Amino acid sequence: HRRVINAEKSEFNEDQAACCQISVRRREPALEEDQEWLILCSTQFLIGYYWALFDGHGGPEAAIMASNYLHCCIRQKLEEVAGAITDARPPMQLSGRCVCDSDPQFVEEKHIQVEDVVVGALENAFQECDEVIGQEMEATNQTGGCTALAALYLQGKLYVANAGDSRAILVLKDSIVPMSSEFTPETERQRLQHLAFLFPKLLDGEFTRFEFPRRLKGDDVGQKVLYRDYFMEGWGYKLVEKADLKYPLVHGHGKQARLLGTLAVSRGLGDHHLKVSDTNIEVKPFLSCIPKVNVFDFALHDIKEDDVLIMATDGLWDVLCDKEVAHMVRSFLAENRTNPHRFSELAKCLVCKARGQKRGHQWVLDDSREASYDDISVFVVPLHNRAKDC
User: Fold this and answer.
1) 53 and 133 share a domain?
2) Is the Cβ–Cβ distance between 145 and 210 less than 8 Å?
3) Considering only CA atoms, which of 246, 229, 238 is closest in space to residue 190?
4) Are residues 247 and 330 in the same domain?
5) Could you tell me if 11 and 138 lie in one domain?
6) Distances from the Cα of 124 to the Cαs of 80, 118, 135, 290, in angstroms?
7) Is residue 280 in some structural domain?
8) pLDDT tens readout for residues 344-355
9) Does residue 389 belong to any structural domain of this protein?
10) Whole-prediction pTM value?
């Protein structure tokens, strides 16, 4: 259930969403590709359910493409490994052969489970989708990128893959379970700095990879100031040199933090031709398309009637925290038990809450805090009474 409300705050909406059933065909090892009629007549499917949110930047084009392509890429990658995800334990070789006696032992020692193969398929699907978007945008002379948050329910487990700053949480009867974490220039500072350390030419002499508490000035040269490098969780002191006065690779704090002074996110799809303003420095080498995948096994939990998955773009989370959302979810569902449309109504309620009310020229929340000025997209997915065949 989803709502997108732009509240007349921008000229066009850059959020996109998709949800569908994914049918994964199980191919038999002996099945040759020329026996297409057998494939067409096959009734052996794994059924999965998919929801995804895409938050575009630099235009809606990448988000639109991702909403059209990502589920196709996921289905393709799952079909390529279908033989492994239908076994109790993934085999070393998909053909079922055992070339080396230690092959089964290797799988066991590495603790490779079926869910690891599904996670790998999702990671590969994001990369494939990113390549497709890059080719399509180059062919149509379009630019832009998007974040991607995708949820897949398959074989009794929920997989949430995130590349960007959207967020998914499970609101259960007695707990909140985070299913994603945001990827921003601040949260990925060390990865970005390490890349700049390994390939300094990517900064083209225009940026410094070091982090300082503030932008340094000429008077700081010769002083010892706090700093961090890629290998540091803690802080040290550095004797400031003239080169340290360059613009930082990661600059700003919170929602103002920017990668190369350009992007507010450090993972996403697209942006293949994005360059730092007035330079030839490409942003894409720093922008990872690979998601972090979290897994929730329903067999290990007693799911109640009002337990839900909440997925939303940063327009919601900028102004509402997990606890505030969970409180709204529990209160709303408790008060609307007989409403058959209560989950979609809840999604609308969450969006309206984050959008706030217009007072004069400002949008404010109920407590007079500033409301969200971003596009807001929300999925509310009930977890109870899941289909038996998926």
Assistant:
1) yes
2) no
3) 229
4) no
5) yes
6) 11, 10, 17, 8
7) no
8) 999 999 998 988
9) no
10) 0.91
